[in-house]
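Listing S7. Sequence submitted for prediction.
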Amino acid sequence: MEQFFKLSERGSNVGTELRAGLTTFLAMAYIIAVNPLLLSEAGIPAAAAVTATCLGAGIMTILMGVFSNRPLACASGMGVNAVVAYTLTAVAGGDWHAANAVIFIEGVAILILVLCGLREAIMDAIPVSLRHAISVGLGLFIAMIGLKDGGIIVADESTMVTLGEVTSPTFIIALISIIATVVLYSLRVPGALLIGIVVSVIAGIPLGVTQMPTGIVSGLDFSSIGAPFLTDEGGTMGIVKVLTNPTLIVFAFSLMMSDFFDTMGTAMAVAKQGDFLTEDGNVKDIKQILIVDSAAAAVGGFFGASSITTFVESTSGAADGGRSGLTSVTTGVLFLLAAFFSPIIAIVNSAATCGALVFVGFLMMGEVHEIDWSDLLEGFPAFMIAAGVPFTYSISDGIGFGFIAYVIVAAVTGQIKKVKPLMWVAAIAFLVYFLLA
């Protein structure tokens, strides 16, 4: 294990990796309850959605750990699952098999692009300043997710976002989570992020935020496995419906663009925390990471779990000391176990993970000083990414703003030669993506 995962070489050990894997799992555990809830709106049996969510996340996270040897975890992505539930299934005539077939096709297509080297080449074409901006934007995004899930910030019709109700139990638990994490980290307590989550879960019991489990063991339901190749009442396979429906093919392209750049941003964010980002902003072992992530999208569609993607919450495990694939393998095994014990795992509420996410966001803000804000070409596109990611609540949209802004600023300032050919390709692709959205 020591030699395979190169633990000593990376300044880690088995205990630290196992703890980091648990931290990542707890930060992601909400998906076990949320994903089936959303997918059931599309008509997928709830029990089948739980099984698909846990098994898909477990298998692909373990593969990520073994194949890339980096602390990244995968699960059904938030946002895409809502698209499957409320848009894709409706466009497909109420057939959730076809909706997941769109995800399957998108995953296969993006895997082909990775194997051809295009996805990695586009990452190499991104200016260093924009790579730093992606980390900053992701930091703000992660913090915003934590604050929103903890009820510290809430939606408001007049101001779009405002302070939540400070006396609400959820707000109080989220605040406890932040304070506990900061105090523990400042005291250099190993596993500060993990302990902060556990403390908050316990504190949530008397306040009614942490719900006691309704059971212990849950059965498995494999009825959604193979979704793209299952038939509707008329006997038509989901994948056939997609290939004969231009509208669904356009959806596949849009989701591919989102997946393409979401993972890019997430990988950079985790690499920064996990110490595998080079000085010029390149992610080590990126090709292996992208191959597994792309295959995960296809697997998600095949399992009927929506698109499985690399989770930005992986930064919590990396910040807690995770440096190798053993962190991911640990997280993956816990997801597989969760398939049998989902009632117990569901007690980890989003308010309890608020502190870990907010603190990771704080750590990622250190990238700000790497950007030359006095240079319009360097600074303005970087700002569009840093602001765009949290403000649009979308990694890919924020990156798209920055890419398009970089090309425009380069053109009007006479620095068009600095724009690499693949940056042009990416900017034009984003323009098409926004027009089709």
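Caption to Listing S7: primary sequence and predicted structure tokens for the chain studied. The two ends are 46 Å apart (CA to CA). The beta strands are 74-76, 153-156, 160-163, 308-310.
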